[in-house]
Structure formats: structure tokens, C-alpha cells
Specification:
By secondary structure, the chain is an alpha/beta fold. It has six helices and twelve strands. Strands 1, 4, 5, 6, 7, 8, 9 and 10 form an eight-stranded mixed beta sheet that branches. A two-stranded antiparallel sheet has the order 2-3. Helix 1 runs antiparallel to helix 2 and helix 2 crosses helix 3. The longest helix is centred in the N-terminal third of the chain and has 20 residues.
């Protein structure tokens, strides 16, 4: 599985990663959502360079010319609710894409022990399409794997691009191990070394869903 860390290159993308991490800036939920949206859009743009294109004639007021147009059928998917801003960013770039949504959440048992519970998914068929699956945080990788497996019930995509803003090294290794035999590319904004006993990424950024939409009850 190919792993692409966009944060390793110097670009304005790193400004967005900085701002979603900064505890003072992220206190503004609207700005947090906008930065997550920007991250989704930048990643979608980078992925667009990997797609298949057809040359198509376009008629202008003064004549005709040829333009390369995306030929792949795309499906944009996200894990609710934290992934919604990134999804909006992807959709701004690929505005003709189909969309899918998955709900998966942690269910705590005793102490720090928890399991990931899949609840619902809605989306189109995926057969021979290109799937973009986004979630802002890749901690243990369990939620991402579960969402991916759930989506496969609607068919096998030609290729899957997994997008995450902040990942743990453990999560990257987990996804590489579990999905390494699939046609999958993992796109990350930054990889952090530490994962706590409660599966929080350090330094990470906190709870992306709460930062974007406010706190919730379990």
C-alpha cells in the first residue's frame, strides 16, 4: 500500500494542519471546520493527479478546443460526524461525484477498553469506481477498516484513496497490515508517534468531531 504524507512537503497545506492543531485557533469551531474543508480539498486535488482522463471537446463563445476531463466514476465517502468538513472539501473539487456515509463509533466497556461499533451506511454501488474515504483522525485504524469493509458490501472499487489529516504511526501500520493486499493509497497530513491507552493521538489535536460541531453525550 502506498502511503503519501503531504506534510513532508513545504506548502500552504501545512498552515492548515498547524491551525487545526493549535489549541487557541481551534477554539473557533467555524475556522476549524474551514481548515478541515481546505485539507479535504487539497487532498482531493492531489488525488486528481492520479485519475484517468478523457479528452473532450468544449465549445466556447469563439470556437472549440479540447479539455481533459476526469473519466473515472468517483464515490466520496466519510465517517460521520467528524469527517463531514473534509467531505465538503472533497465535494468542492469533485462536484459530480456520488457520495456515501458511514457511522461508526467507540463503545467503551470498562476503563480504557472499547470496541468500534458499526451502525449504518448509505451509498451507491462501488463496482469499478474510485473510492475516496475520509476521516480526520486515524488513531488505532479500527474505525477506518470497519468503514472500508462496510462499504465493500456495495461492490469492489477499482481503487481506494483513504484520506486523514492526523494519523498515529500505529494506525498507519494497522491499515497497511489489514488493507495492504487491496488497491489502496493512504494520504495523511501528519503522522504522530504516540497513541495513549485511550487511543488518543499525541500531540494530535483532540476530538475532531467535538471541535467541529460541539461536545456530545456517549
Amino acid at each position: 500500500m502506498e502511503i503519501i504524507n503531504l506534510g513532508e512537503e513545504n506548502s500552504v497545506f501545512n498552515q492548515f494542519i498547524y491551525e487545526i492543531r493549535d489549541h487557541k485557533i481551534q477554539a473557533d469551531s467555524m475556522r476549524f471546520r474551514i481548515n478541515m474543508k481546505r485539507i479535504g480539498a487539497v487532498m482531493a486535488y492531489e488525488i486528481s493527479k492520479r485519475l484517468t482522463y478523457n479528452s473532450t471537446e468544449v465549445v466556447t463563445p469563439l470556437g472549440t478546443t479540447q479539455s481533459p476531463i476526469v473519466a473515472d466514476k468517483l464515490v466520496l465517502a466519510t465517517i460521520l460526524r467528524a469527517g463531514l468538513p473534509m467531505h465538503e472539501g472533497m465535494l468542492q473539487v469533485f462536484d459530480h461525484a456520488e457520495n456515501a456515509f458511514v457511522t461508526a463509533s467507540r463503545k467503551y466497556e470498562t476503563g480504557d477498553k472499547f470496541h468500534i461499533e458499526f451502525e449504518h451506511f448509505s451509498g451507491p454501488g462501488l463496482g469499478n469506481k474510485v473510492l475516496l474515504l475520509a476521516d480526520p483522525m486515524l488513531a488505532t485504524g479500527l474505525s477506518m477498516e470497519l468503514a472500508y469493509r462496510a462499504l465493500l458490501k456495495n461492490g469492489e472499487p477499482a481503487h481506494t484513496h483513504i484520506l486523514t489529516a492526523i494519523a498515529s504511526k500505529e494506525g498507519v501500520d494497522f491499515i497497511s497490515d489489514k488493507l495492504g493486499d487491496k488497491k489502496v493509497t493512504l494520504w495523511v497530513g501528519a503522522v504522530d508517534d504516540e497513541l495513549t491507552s485511550k487511543a488518543y493521538i499525541v500531540p494530535g489535536l483532540g476530538d475532531a468531531g467535538d471541535l467541529a460541531y460541539g461536545s456530545k453525550t456517549d
